[in-house]
Design a protein that fits this description.
The chain is of the alpha/beta class and 360 residues long. The protein has 15 helices and eleven strands. A five-stranded parallel sheet has the order 6-5-7-10-11, sandwiched between helices.
Length: 360
């Protein structure tokens, strides 16, 4: 965990440094190891300062409007406390600096920081969402928060493992995307099921290709429910509370209810960037060759398109994904699917329909 804490701090500092270099200091002080990591960047956002100044009850990363949202620092905070240490933001003349103090001897159980409430009291109150798609993650988190859950969001299995290592009994609900940058939802679900402390946890799979998972009894049996993207709030609520859930038909603007205009605008901008990147990749792709990276991006964009009610584009994206995943599809068919998708375009006013204030 010490390695993870320092790695997160250094990576964060490197990301924001202006090129003059990141400084790492270490000293021993009265039985304590004191680490300091400093950069020459724009300084620590107030949202992150506030996060690190409080105990991580119901912790989640803070949106800063800058590059990144503080997830690495949030994980570092949890791990530091789990090791019996302290983490604090310093006030250098320029840039940002974080100090971590760790005991040189392992803290006894009596010295461990008290966690708010017993694990059974928090069951179904804290949720770990693992999804690398920022659009789907924001929509899903908004639905969960309206149900009264506190949501932590990881974009990779590595981040999810780090959060579990820091607080192994913090979560009663897990929502897992199927396809992730470093593995799959069933991979992580199998690890959760092997942990006796998480035997009663609810695990729900989110997938744009739910039928693929249902076709595998070994994978399907890991989950309390398997829900199709884009999510329906009613189906999600039933799944988390242990009832049979089937995804309801329909998508579009209703999924964005509860999100601020700023959040919806950022989601629309993220989808537009992904759409532009995808079309560039598609134009350069050779239909004679299967392309797993192209299929992965099509998979992610299809869910985003459906969230915004762009059903025709979502269907074409799923066709591209299938054409590059299915070994039986020939080059001629892939070429036709490429051409059909490239002939699609986003409606000129589509952003306005979803980014204006729905409460107005």
């Amino acid at each position: 965990m010490t390695q993870q804490v320092l790695g997160n701090l250094i990576q964060n500092a490197l990301r924001h440094d202006d090129g003059r270099g990141v400084l790492v200091g270490l000293r021993a002080e009265d039985g304590t190891l004191v680490f300091q990591v400093a950069d020459h960047g724009p300084g620590m956002p107030e949202e992150i300062r506030d996060m690190l100044a409080h105990e991580p009850a119901g912790l989640r990363p803070r949106r800063t409007g800058q590059n990144g949202c503080g997830l690495g620092l949030a994980i570092a905070q949890r791990m530091t406390l789990a090791l019996g240490g302290r983490i604090a933001v310093l006030d250098p003349a320029e840039g940002a600096a974080v100090e971590v103090r760790l005991p040189r001897a392992a803290a006894s159980p009596a010295e461990q920081p008290a966690r708010p409430g017993a694990p059974e009291d928090r069951l179904h109150q804290n949720c770990l969402l693992v999804d690398d798609d920022p659009i789907n993650a924001q929509v899903t988190a908004a639905m969960l928060e309206r149900m009264g859950l506190s949501v932590d969001h990881a974009q990779t299995l590595e981040q999810a493992h780090a959060l579990l290592l820091a607080a192994p009994d913090a979560y009663g609900v897990f929502l897992l995307d199927y396809r992730l940058p470093d593995g799959t939802g069933p991979d992580f679900a199998r690890e959760i099921r092997r942990d006796p402390a998480l035997a009663e946890a609810s695990i729900v799979l989110l997938s744009a290709n739910a039928d693929w998972v249902r076709a595998s009894p070994e994978d399907a049996g890991l989950f309390q429910a398997i829900l199709e993207k884009p999510l329906d709030a009613t189906a999600l609520g039933k799944a988390i509370h242990g009832k049979t859930a089937r995804p309801a038909a329909g998508a579009g603007g209703g999924l964005l209810d509860g999100l601020s205009p700023t959040a919806r605008r950022r989601m629309a901008e993220a989808f537009t960037r992904g759409w532009t990147e995808f079309r560039t990749m598609l134009e350069a792709a050779d239909p004679a060759e299967r392309d797993s990276a192209l299929a992965a991006l099509a998979h992610k964009l299809a869910s985003g398109a459906a969230t915004f009610g762009l059903d025709g584009i979502a269907d074409r994206l799923r066709r591209i994904e299938a054409a590059h995943e299915d070994r039986t599809v020939d080059a001629t068919t892939r070429a036709k699917e490429h051409g059909a998708l490239l002939a699609c375009s986003l409606p000129p006013d589509w952003r306005n329909r979803f980014t204006e204030d729905s409460s107005a």
